[in-house]
Amino acid sequence: MHVFLTGASGYIGSAVLRALIARGHTVTAVLRSGEKAARAREAGATAVVGDLADQELVARLAREADAVVHTASAEDVDPGFTATVLETLDGTEKPFVHTGGIFTFGASGDITEDTPIAPPALTAWRTANEAHVRASTVRTTVVAPGIVHGHGAGIPTMFVPDGDAPVRLVGDGTQRWTTVHVDDLAELYVLAVERGDQDGYLVAASGHNPTVRDLAQAGVEGQPGVEGQADARAAVVAESVDESRQRLGTDFADALLLDQAATGAHARGLGWQPSRPTLVEELRSGYRAD
């Protein structure tokens, strides 16, 4: 298939690009700069320098493609971009795979595709846009990733010590995060493209739901000079909710303070097989960029 991909230079999008190429698909990617476009070409894509706010460009690329995958999801981009894609693909069998997020479900110890949404302020903007996507007649799938990790990047870098400074928890660290490796996540996007479901929804979760304290201690254990768990515990510092909000910003902190767990059972039932190391394993091995 010929896939129109957004966000090909980003953390998730670059992994999706690699996965699509590995499966034999061709990819056209829109990037904002020549430098980013050059990297996408090196990865195997046909790269176009442009802006997702350019509705004529978006409509043309959607018409020319067999499928659209949107990983460059953002509050200022999504309404116009998705409206253009949905209008262009209406009446065709072309799939549109859109990116959501696990925060949408709020605090829940058993998140599934049917869990009622309760988004924090950070991601409340997604609600109306996802409703528009799901209500369309286009063959849409929303992929909702957990906390994404892999290749020494993403939110988990906050648990890699900076010199001798202690690693700070978010709150007291008892909340769980549901996680997914970026390369496993990318393979789920490919599965969604190839299935082309009507109003599909996929919670992208590996089933690994560590506490924030588990992650922080693993991050310390992964650094040279730490002899064991006792040293790791000593190098981890809890903070109050107000302290986390002041350090990270209220909206971001409140999202990271959510207690969430998921198994990803529905996606597994469709053939998805996450196989990469867990986030705790990666942190204990030293979480560094490739």
From TrEMBL:
<protein>
    <submittedName>
        <fullName>NAD-dependent epimerase/dehydratase family protein</fullName>
    </submittedName>
</protein>
<dbReference type="InterPro" id="IPR051783">
    <property type="entry name" value="NAD(P)-dependent_oxidoreduct"/>
</dbReference>
<feature type="domain" description="NAD-dependent epimerase/dehydratase">
    <location>
        <begin position="3"/>
        <end position="198"/>
    </location>
</feature>
<dbReference type="Pfam" id="PF01370">
    <property type="entry name" value="Epimerase"/>
</dbReference>
<dbReference type="InterPro" id="IPR001509">
    <property type="entry name" value="Epimerase_deHydtase"/>
</dbReference>
<dbReference type="InterPro" id="IPR036291">
    <property type="entry name" value="NAD(P)-bd_dom_sf"/>
</dbReference>
